[in-house]
């Protein structure tokens, strides 16, 4: 609690999105008061209904673009914020290749504005949504936070690397900001209530929603890109983490920043399970857990895909006291339950 007895108010940009909405739930459960900012360009208002059903109350939400300086300034003036979790960003890899300036403008400008407003209003703590894309195809696995960053495969990935550098340089200039960049691996699943989950607009860019939409008959078939990789079954390997585990990692990161005594600090932490799973393992596990057979075909490799990447999560355990608790089977069951609810609505 704050000295006034109020729950600490935390700005959650992109808080109606997939990871953001689940983090809002975890924040409330941990005694924080989330304040959502979302322009709904890549999310839907229905997420707020889902949050209401889970939390039995409304959450403050501003329908505002994070690049709108006047609107964001007004929110900082009004809300007496104690921290920021910054999710809001364009994230479609393919689109970023076609429209790089759109991605650089949006993803970088929104961060710059936050870094200007935070010290102006005495807000020190920042949790930044980064990505394992900064590692590219690493030479050694699993990747640690010391694994060298490689050139990004897309403008989207590059905005994450540049954003990390911007935060680091800002902190090194002794701006009073304490920041943690969480490098996510592959978030999957949904809240077990099936009230919120991944809600891609148009054709899904991620594997699991494509699987669930194929299982539901929304997509005719699923293409597995590449069957000749140097992996146990020839398909790509990724580190799939349940979105609620990821949400809880943000709460632990915020708590760590709250406990810090230094004025300015910056660090990066991998958030994954520490295990790599092939695409075919995901498909087979989904079929086993749901009893639904998937119509899928094997296709050629897709340009830009990394063969395999998964996390070393030692630092997350040590620094945050956090570890992923939910299984792959649980993640896929929750994702399917969410898809079934969508199909009925």
UniProtKB/TrEMBL annotation:
The record ties this protein, via InterPro entries, to: NAD(P)-bd_dom (IPR016040), NAD(P)-bd_dom_sf (IPR036291), UDP_G4E (IPR005886)
Query: Which cofactors does it use?
Result: NAD(+)
What superkingdom heads the lineage? Bacteria
Query: What EC number(s) are associated with this protein in UniProt?
Result: 5.1.3.2
Among the GO biological process terms of this entry, one is: galactose metabolic process
Q: What are the record keywords, sorted?
A: Carbohydrate metabolism, Isomerase, NAD
Q: In which pathway does it act?
A: Carbohydrate metabolism; galactose metabolism
Enzyme group, top EC level? isomerase
Under CDD domains, the record lists: UDP_G4E_1_SDR_e (cd05247)
**Record-stated family:** Belongs to the NAD(P)-dependent epimerase/dehydratase family.
Task: Tell me the protein's name.
Answer: UDP-glucose 4-epimerase
């Amino acid at each position: 609690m704050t000295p006034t007895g109020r729950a600490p108010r935390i700005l959650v940009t992109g808080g109606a999105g997939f990871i953001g909405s689940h983090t809002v739930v975890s924040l409330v459960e941990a005694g924080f008061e989330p304040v959502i900012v979302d322009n709904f360009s890549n999310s839907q208002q229905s997420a707020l209904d889902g949050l209401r059903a889970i939390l039995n109350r409304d959450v403050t939400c501003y329908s505002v673009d994070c690049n709108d300086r006047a609107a964001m300034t007004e929110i900082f003036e009004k809300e007496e914020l104690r921290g920021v979790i910054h999710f809001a960003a364009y994230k479609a890899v393919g689109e970023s290749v076609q429209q790089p300036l759109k991605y650089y403008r949006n993803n970088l400008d929104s961060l710059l504005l936050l870094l200007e407003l935070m010290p102006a209003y005495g807000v020190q703590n920042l949790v930044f949504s980064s990505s394992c894309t900064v590692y590219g195809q690493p030479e050694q696995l699993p990747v640690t936070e010391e694994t060298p960053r490689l050139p990004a495969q897309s403008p989207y990935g590059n905005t994450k690397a540049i954003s990390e550098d911007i935060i680091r340089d800002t902190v090194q200039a002794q701006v009073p900001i304490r920041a943690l960049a969480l490098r996510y691996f592959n978030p999957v699943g949904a809240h077990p209530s099936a009230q919120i989950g991944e809600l891609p607009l148009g054709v899904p860019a991620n594997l699991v929603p494509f699987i669930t939409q194929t299982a539901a008959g929304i997509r005719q078939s699923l293409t597995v890109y590449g069957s000749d990789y140097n992996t146990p079954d020839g398909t790509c390997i990724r580190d799939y983490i349940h979105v609620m585990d990821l949400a809880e990692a943000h709460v632990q990161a915020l708590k760590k920043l709250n406990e810090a005594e230094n004025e300015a600090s910056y660090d990066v932490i991998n958030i994954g399970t520490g295990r790599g799973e092939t695409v075919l393992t995901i498909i087979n596990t989904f079929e086993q857990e749901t009893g639904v057979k998937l119509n899928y075909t094997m296709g050629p490799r897709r340009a830009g895909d990394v063969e395999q990447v998964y996390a070393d999560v030692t630092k997350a355990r040590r620094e945050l006291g956090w570890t992923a608790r939910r299984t792959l089977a649980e993640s896929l069951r929750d994702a399917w339950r969410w898809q079934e609810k969508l199909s009925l609505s």
